[in-house]
Amino acid sequence: MKKQTLTLLLAVIIPPGWGYPIDGYEHTHIRRLEYTNTAKLPPGAWLSLNSVVPSGDGVSELPECDTELSAEIKAMLGENAADYSVAVLDISDPARPRYAAHNEDHAANIGSVGKFLVLFALFDKLARLYPDDVDARERILRETTVVADNWILHDSHVVPIMDKAADRIVNRRLHTGDTGNLWEYLDWMASASSNAAASMVVQQVILLEHFGHDYPVEPSVARNFLEQASPQQIGNLWLTAMQRPLEEAGFDINRIRQGSPFTATAKRYVAGTSSTGNVRDLIRLLNLIEAERFVDVWSSREAKRLLYMTQRRIRYASHPALNNDAVYFKSGSYYSCKPEPGFVCRKYRGNRINRLASIAIIESPANSPGLRYMVAVMSNELYVNASVAHQTLAMRIHRLIESLHPMRLQPEEKPGDISPPGHDEAVPYITQ
Known about the structure:
- This protein is α+β, with helices and mostly antiparallel strands.
- Helix 2 runs antiparallel to helix 12 and helix 6 (about 195-210) packs across helix 8 (about 230-250).
- The model is unreliable at about 1-15 and about 415-430 (pLDDT under 50).
- The strands form three sheets. The chain has a six-stranded antiparallel β-sheet with strand order 1-8-9-10-2-3, with helices on both faces. Strands 5-6-11 form a three-stranded mixed β-sheet, with no helix packed on it.
- The two termini are about 25 Å apart.
- The chain contains twelve helices and eleven strands.
- It is globular, with a radius of gyration of 21 Å.
């Protein structure tokens, strides 16, 4: 390879960490849920659909920052503290929530964590159209067929797609013409972190904003509108749908926003803006789920289910200290490299940019939480493996939260102490 400046978005070679409770097929018709291999799941991933719900213990406002706890978080980051932003909201004791942060106002592009904001916008629009009709919202998610078009170009992430002929799940990139219901595209966006799927969800948000109660429209009608409208017209619909729920929830869109789709082709259709975020506002968004105010109660529950990790855990979520815990997670990586003697550019190890953002809700242990807390981390520590750094930080923050609540700790559970729900025999996953 010639020495040149390389800009690398996350390239997925192995299956990513996927979400949604494993007994959720009948509810969503997300096809991969029919074939989940429970033998591969950590104990904390076995919660049933009805067990994955908001706690209701979210705060009305973030407590005043705990300076002592914040100092402990800064200390665990050591000499590289300046490269990190961290916020933690501990609601293990709902009567005494604690908030701690380091560099909480530092703003940067949050990468794929911005897909969490797209989810907020979609659920907000559904709630506006059907404020008292949850069945209608679920019917749209379950029965709307989304067909991948040129908005998916180009993306390296793989998604789990059912190969009916071979009777197995195949992990591959989305191709134009691939179909799934809207819920499945949300799953591919949120947990497989597919940029292609996310851009198709962006398209559906725009169509919802434009067509309202007439959505979903015939494919030819949608195509004609998207081809004939100007990027500015489409961009105005997009920014309205994205910014309105944030502003009404009390966020400053100059501090947190997802300004554009996630693929190059989709960006040509949408005149958007830049994207940014900070750990304080990310914690506030996570808190809306637990407070049942991520739009409303139904939206909060479905957002939490889409973030629930029920396949391979990655990055912050992957430390064994969290194996018995329910983990609700999203992350985003962006790194780039510049020529440097003796340096080899690797994934998550940029020497020019090495950004990694992670958000998580942790419930420990999964089946009877004594600890419940939220974390947002943004980092740009060059040269190191950012994925491993976040994994290590997860363990340290978990031990810190444990130390705050010794009376809430339960004896360590072995994998056999939590039984998976009944499920059909798994069909193997393969990667193409």
